[in-house]
Amino acid sequence: MQVLMLKRAINLLKTFLFPIAVYAIILIVTLLMNKTGYVSSGAFDRIIRGSVLTTITAYAIALPLSGGRWDFAPGIIIILAGIIGSNLTIDLGLGPIMLLAVTVAVAVLLSLVEGLLYLWIRVPTIIVSLGVVMMYEALSGVVYGGSGTQLYMHAGLTVFARSPWIYILLAVIMVLFYYLLSHTKFGYDTRSLAANPRLAVNMGVKEKKNIFLTYLVVGALLGAAAVINASTVLVSPAGNLSSTALMFSSMGPVLVGLYLAQFTNLPLGIFAGALGMNALSYGMVVLGIDSSMQTVIVGVFIVGFMAYTSNQERIRVYLSRRRAANKAQA
Prior knowledge:
By secondary structure, this protein is mainly α. It is built from 14 helices and no strands.
């Protein structure tokens, strides 16, 4: 029992070693440059609080991606569900709990429409999702006269973007997401389809049902993300695929998290990836790096990280051969 607990503790440390290392390296750099903004408690809170929206969005991206389905619609669903849910809540005089319920319901509906279109048309999700993005972006400029939403001006409705409720919401979502993937038939079927779709279908897994349920879960996740997003920023109508920026901003945590998940599980892996990427992004802000250069640095970092993790075995074999050659020469 003690050995098992020790092994789990070591694996947990391996999972969160990435964000700890990123934070420590940037902290040292900022201190060497006489910049103290990164060491404050406010900076630490911003990194963690900023990771909540990224983590929930990343969950919604990673779930269909595990089945080989690239989806560009999460960003616009967050925007459109935020606009509709927030304005409905304000107009009806509802509270924060109903805001969450209404926004999640709208996001689920928008996500299921996309899922049903995919099941009906049966073309690659990249094509379907791009079409859905264009339709929903046009719709975001029509609903409520294209005024978007300013939910952050209604302090009583923005509790889910503030401590402690933002962390409670994340904890609930993480636990439910872990349970769904690890202890339900849906989770088993999802992993089976990701590993070998043809074999899974032959073994009795209902692929269409699984896809439908995937979009249902994705919608619920994006609804929660929409509430947090609308509670912190001005949500304006999107156009010219600008909404995909929300999706791409969470791709780093997804890619890093999929690797870190091997030590513990997917929810913790993605959360650790989000913490690390947000620590990197906020560190560059403290260092005064230009926004365009920040994008370049993040892109290079992700490519380098994926190159290393994808070629670990080849690197290990190469280093072993080098050591053996050096010993032979000695």
